[in-house]
Design goal:
six-stranded antiparallel beta sheet, four-stranded antiparallel beta sheet, single chain, 17% helix
Length: 357
């Protein structure tokens, strides 16, 4: 009878050891790949949120206070002191929903907008001279779009060129018919603005410079789960709305206002708070915006980056260094561990900030 050969106990043990080492390597690679994917996915979401915020605030700030051609004799500063939004004094050193020293203090962006202006119209005579006429045909401005642009088929239209602006009562859907023939020749470029309200008793726009303001507030807040984000509150004149979450992951914003002191349309200094409303000779021509983002949710994975982020040298911050820098995982590990951070900075030209004096 032939003897059957098998593996010895030593051979089996060696095989198990080698297999365990190989399996541990595979598991380690898989775990590393999973962590890398999670981090990269979170950073991609962070960048998308940052891009949204930059686009949102850039669009708002670039046209803030804009009302057609910029030839005017008076400068109206639309920015407000961030410690007094909606006329209520607030502590601007504390992020709402957090304790005093949890995070670096974040600025608030507060400004007025003219709520009477609902939208700018794109009309066919924009590149043509608009002539006064007694005929109904010349009294009608055809739209390039067939949409219904006037609420209740009635409202006001502001026609503006570089000479000035004039309000008209108007009606129409696919075309706008003015209540009277144009008062004068309008030369291109011509801007057409639709305004809210209807009827001759409308208070918001009776003439140029008689505006009806809404106040808008952007601020960083924390929710009940200590997740930070950018929130928006609006007061249309009847009381502030409840703050609405605009986007997650916004941890800090720093706003600096570029002031043109010598009327060359270039910012000469940047200040922490805007000049008082009506200050002559200090137009805000640009806004420098710094946004510190962090991943929207804590993933339980240590971020591989432990960076310093320079917010502002004058920042009064318990968890910052003397030069205004903030190192989240070093200075605030308990609250910041599990998040990744990125800093974004841009300077936005204010379209309405350039005025001759």
């Amino acid at each position: 009878m032939k003897k059957t050969l098998g593996f010895s106990i030593v051979e089996i043990m060696v095989t198990l050891v080698i297999s365990s080492v190989l399996l541990a390597g595979v598991i380690s690679i898989f775990d590393m790949s999973k962590r890398t994917y999670t981090i990269q996915s979170s950073l991609s979401e962070l960048q998308d949120n940052a891009r949204f915020i930059m686009n949102e605030l850039t669009d708002e700030l670039r046209v803030i206070g804009y009302f057609g051609c910029r030839l005017t004799s008076a400068y109206i500063n639309p920015f407000l002191d961030d410690s007094n939004p909606f006329g209520v004094i607030v502590n601007d050193d504390v992020i709402p929903g957090t304790d005093q020293d949890d995070y670096p203090p974040s600025d608030r962006l507060v400004f007025n907008i003219d709520k009477s202006i609902q939208q700018e119209l794109i009309l066919t005579p924009a590149n043509e001279i608009l002539f006064p006429s007694n005929t109904i045909i010349s009294n009608t401005i055809p739209l390039t779009s067939s949409s219904n642009v006037l609420s209740s088929n009635a409202g006001r239209v502001i026609i503006r060129d570089c000479i000035g602006a004039d309000p008209y009562q108007a009606s129409g859907e696919n075309t706008i018919t003015l209540d009277r023939t144009p008062d004068r020749f309008y030369k291109p470029p011509i801007d057409f603005f639709m305004t809210r309200g209807n009827g001759a008793t409308t208070d918001c726009v009776v003439g140029v410079g008689n505006a009806c303001f809404s106040t808008v507030l952007y601020e960083v807040r924390a929710d009940d789960n200590n997740e930070l984000g950018l929130w928006k509150t609006v007061d249309h004149g009847s009381g502030a709305s409840n703050p609405q979450l605009l986007v997650e992951g916004v941890q800090n914003i720093q706003i600096r206002y570029g002031i043109d002191t010598n009327q060359d349309n270039i910012p000469d200094i940047y200040v922490n708070t805007p000049p008082v409303q009506g200050t002559i000779g200090q137009p805000i021509v640009s806004v420098r915006l710094t946004v510190l983002m962090r991943t929207a949710k804590k993933r339980g994975i240590k971020c591989p980056f432990n960076k310093k982020f320079f917010l502002d040298v004058d920042l009064d911050c318990a968890v910052c260094e003397d030069n205004g820098s903030y190192q989240p995982l070093e200075k605030n590990k308990e609250l910041e561990e599990g998040y990744c951070h990125r800093l974004f900075t841009t300077t936005i030209g204010v379209r309405n900030g350039v005025f001759p004096f």
